[in-house]
Design goal:
By secondary structure, this protein is an alpha/beta fold. It contains four helices and seven strands, in the order βαβαββααβββ. The longest helix is centred in the first third of the chain and has 12 residues. It is globular and about 40 Å long.
Length: 138
């Protein structure tokens, strides 16, 4: 599935489309260059999930937890990781296998630790348009 975002006001609709297509996938992997809009898209998804907490990139804390009506939502940013062992030290398995939503920015930093059943979201730029490609991995 591909979603094209031309204007920022289309973001909420795109977030809802992702939730609709996700099915049972709770671990979402966000790929894209720095500044592509990964965190901005995650913020919109969190709003659609009814999260009222402030959603921000966990660049320094590695993981943020948000309260939602469906239970906790975990937001990871692995950009600063130097080795996968740092994710092991964090106890990543407890989060990823909790059955709760886990939104992961920079998943390529822990590629050997990722579960099989994920929703892979790649955000690219084409001029002023953001292209969101979605693939499920089982």
């Amino acid at each position: 599935m591909k979603i094209q975002l031309i204007a920022i006001n289309e973001l909420e609709k795109a977030a809802q489309q992702l939730l609709d297509v996700a099915g049972k996938h709770k671990v979402w992997l966000f790929y894209g260059d720095m500044g592509a809009g990964k965190t901005t898209l995650i913020k919109a998804i969190c709003r659609q999930l009814g999260i009222t907490d402030t959603v921000s990139s966990p660049t320094f804390s590695i993981v943020n937890e948000y309260a939602s009506p469906q239970g906790p939502v975990y937001h990871f940013d692995f950009y600063r990781l130097k080795a996968e062992s740092e994710a092991l030290d964090l106890g990543y398995e407890d989060y990823l296998y909790s059955g709760n939503y886990c939104f992961i920015e920079w998943p390529e930093k822990i590629s050997n630790l990722l579960p099989q059943n994920t929703l892979n979201i790649t955000i690219g730029l084409s001029g002023d348009t953001r292209i969101i490609e979605v693939k499920s991995q089982n």
